[in-house]
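WARN no homologs supplied; continuing
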Amino acid sequence: GSAIAPAIIESCPQRIFLPNDRAVEPQARTAYERFGLSERQIELIARATPKRQYYLQSRRGNRLFELGLGPIALALCGASDPATQTLIDRILSEDGQGSFASQFLIARGLDWAGELLKQFPQPDKEQLA
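OK structure emitted
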C-alpha cells in the first residue's frame, strides 16, 4: 500500500464506486474495506449493473443509484469496450470528425438521432482543430 493512501482517501469526502463483479474476491474486498465499506456495501457494488448503477459513499449517507442515461447518452458516454473503440476509429478514418457524432449514433442503431444531428450545421474544420 501507499504511504499517502490514507491521506488521499480521507481527503475525498464523497466517493463513487463503479460496478465490479469481482469486488467480492479477497484482494478486491480488502481494497474496498480500506474505504470503510461493509460486506453488504461491497456486495451491492458486485451486483450493480455496469454503466447504469453506481454506489455513492458520503458523510450524509450511502446509496446505490442510477444515472438514468438515455440511449444517446449511454451510447456516447459508455463507449469504452474494444469493439466500440474500433468502431470509433473506423468512423473517424472514413468520415472524419465533422460528421462523427451522427455516423456513430447511426452505427449504434440510433438512426433517428443520427439523422436529426445531420439537420444541424456542421462545424468548420478550423473549429475542429
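The chain has a mean pLDDT of 89.
OK
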